[in-house]
Amino acid sequence: MAQTQRKHGTCKPTIFPPTLITVWETIPVPTPRPIRLLIRLLAAGVCRSDHNLLTNEVQPSFSKQHFTLGHEGCGEIVGFGSALTPNSTSCQYKLGDIVALLAVPGCGDLETCEECRIGEPQLRLTGYRSGIGMDGFFAEYCVIDVRGAVLVPRNVSPAQAAVATDAVTTAYHAIHRRACIISSDVVFLFGLGGLGFNALQIIRAIGAKVLVSDVKQENLDAAVELGVSEEDCVPVGKGVREWVEERGWSGRIGVTADFVGTEGTFGDAQHIREFLSICLQAGRMLCVGTLNHENTVHMKLAIRKRLDIIFSYGGQTRDLKEALDLIAQGVLNSMVSNGKLEDLPKVMKALEEGKVQGRVALLCD
């Protein structure tokens, strides 16, 4: 059974599925294993996936029966496992360093682990997965494999760093490593939520042209504030395929980036007619959003258009490092609002009702 929140040494609310009833629990400070760090948490981001883990009837096969949620974290190093020596070849960190926490760093076994060997450690099912079936970051303390820690630049806040570990890193990995978007691309972006708003900024930083669609006017307004032309935003309620035709974008869009994942967005991405005109390269459909568990591929259409349907999941420490650098440089500004750890039940409810814009980071006292 997933828990959302734990406090060490004092009692604080914990929410249990499926009713989201709040109870109280106290747990001991964890002891780090040999290659893990003990972290005093400063901030933890709240993700739609946290809500899904609470409410899904079927949990991942590797899940513990009872665990703490939270997979976006930032904190201060306060302890080292027995195999780690601070400021050495075994560990580049020292006590007091502020680090962002990558929830799924893989197992690190390059000899027997195929996922880690090919450079996709976030796909490893048997490695530690903070907050995803195993204890995570909605607590005062946590442990993290040293390979999952990334030093936070001085001018990046704990809230920004926490959110960067997933909401930014996942978008960065998808855009740079999977879809390989370049400055000459024209990209149609579906969704300006927690990940999509960051994706928009990453695409713009590359220099690519981006067209955007979202069901909320406030998200489109935020895109315009970033510098996106109103003419490049699909009006709320307007059909995407119709808009593409009317605006003369048929035959000019090379990539669709779906950060929603509904039947509507997945269908629109396949049917946008611009892909019919691509000659030098096939159209790319980047799929990141997972609001629907299943969507339908139009096989004949996809084959005739030579579509590359690209799925992306999570990211790696190099993505997190580069994402934090973009934030430090002022190139990327995540849409983050702050709360307290005690606010988690209220934030979960707001997520369920679709009332959260961007991301919420819970600050730990």
TrEMBL record:
Superkingdom assignment: Eukaryota
The keyword Oxidoreductase belongs to this UniProt entry's keyword annotation: yes
Key words, A-Z: Oxidoreductase
Domain Alcohol dehydrogenase-like N-terminal: 36-153
Coiled-coil zones: none
Molecular-function annotations in GO: oxidoreductase activity
Domain Alcohol dehydrogenase-like C-terminal span(s) in chain numbering: 194-328
SUPFAM superfamilies in the cross-refs: GroES-like (SSF50129), NAD(P)-binding Rossmann-fold domains (SSF51735)
Protein name listed in UniProt: GroES-like protein
